[in-house]
Amino acid sequence: MRATTIHAPGDIRFEEVPDPVIEEPTDAIVKVVAGCICGSDLWPYRGHNDITAGSTIGHECVGVVEEVGREVRDVKVGDFVVVPFDHCDNTCAHCRAGMQSACVNLGITQSGQGEYARVTQADGSLVATDGMPDDHLIPSLLALTDVMATGWHAAVAAGVRRGGTAVVVGDGAVGLSGVLAAAQMGAERVIAMSRHEPRQEIARAFGATDIVAERGEEGEARIAELTGGIGADAVLECVGTDGAMKTAFAVARPGATVGFVGVPHGVELPVRRMFQKNVGLAGGMAPVRRYLPDLLERVLSGSIDPGRVFDLTLPMSESAEGYRAMDERRAIKVLLQP
Ligand SMILES: [Zn+2]
Ligand SMILES: [Zn+2]
User: What letters, b where the CB count within 10 A reaches 16 and e where it falls short, cover 207-230?
Assistant: First the structure.
């Protein structure tokens, strides 16, 4: 098959690689209908993560089941499926406790920006739609494979509640999804931190009531002002840098929780502030499968449209340009079509 591969920082190619095959009887092979580039793919692209030269990249895709292993019962060849980036059996103790991202049989999609992807624990992982979805739903279904579920997880971890105030740090696709999640959960005030006009517009469409364009201490002061000096009831940290985490803790009111879902890079926690103000930290890698049935229902009923985060669609063969566009912040999130 042809798939997107990474050879070195900044070196993305679309080339022939071996077809993924059924390796375990619980596997499925999915023919990718749409894949996309994730903000976390930019970490290796920018040289912040180790790279195995020539390995496939991309952990987000939806598609049609092409082949199943002999123990797969619930999904069938021909089903259209949403593929959570983190595969799980959905039956072990951690899955039953809602922590599918820590499944004892955890797997991760490896070639979501290629023509085919292998899904481990197919019965536990995959959620099939009733027949082929309309084309216009594909971007929103694709968003469920990671960013929307991750934004949702940030809101759950932060304890967003009806009538409360939520601050979202980060205006990437996950941050914007976090805005949508907080609004869906009934937060009365959703404050999105964003300096970029197109992202502010999506944040508003997703339910942000206030936009704070300032960053760092100025942004923190602005949020103090907006909350009458009290701070936010819930804070969603959707970036993963030290600066974003510092801002998140600075704007959290005493007793609040910061829900963090950005992959942490170089973060030092302000433990003294956490202690003095009783501000907690919860979250981590999103248990996507836990939220999929509910989120799928919301997409199919038209109550959420998380696919709006895709502002550039390219043929998969131009995935290198997609990475450049996201790296240079010319695009929020890039959808790739095989
Ligand atoms: Zn992702
Ligand atoms: Zn499990």
Answer: bbbbbbeebeeebbebbbebbeee
Give the pLDDT confidence score for residue 121 in this predicted structure: 98
Taking the centre of ligand 2 as the mean of its atom positions, its distance from the CA of residue 93, in whole angstroms, is 6
CA distances from 1 to 16, 20, 36, 151 (A): 6, 8, 17, 32
* Closest-approaching ligand to the CA atom of 108: 1
Q: Domains in the chain, ordered, with CATH?
A: 2-146+287-337 (3.90.180.10), 148-283 (3.40.50.720)
Task: Give the pLDDT confidence of 120-136 residue by residue, as tens digits.
Answer: 999 999 999 999 999 99
Q: Please, are residues 292 and 86 in contact by the beta-carbon 8 Å criterion?
A: no
- Considering every ligand atom shown, identify the ligand nearest to the alpha carbon of residue 177 and give its number: 1
What is the Å distance from ligand 2's center to 265 Cα? 27
Question: What residues are neighbours of ligand 1 (ion), with CB under 5 Å?
Answer: 38, 146
Which stretches within the chain are classed as H helix? 42-45, 93-96, 122-125, 138-143, 147-158, 173-184, 197-205, 216-226, 242-251, 271-277, 288-300, 319-327
User: Does the pTM of the predicted model rise above 0.85?
Assistant: yes
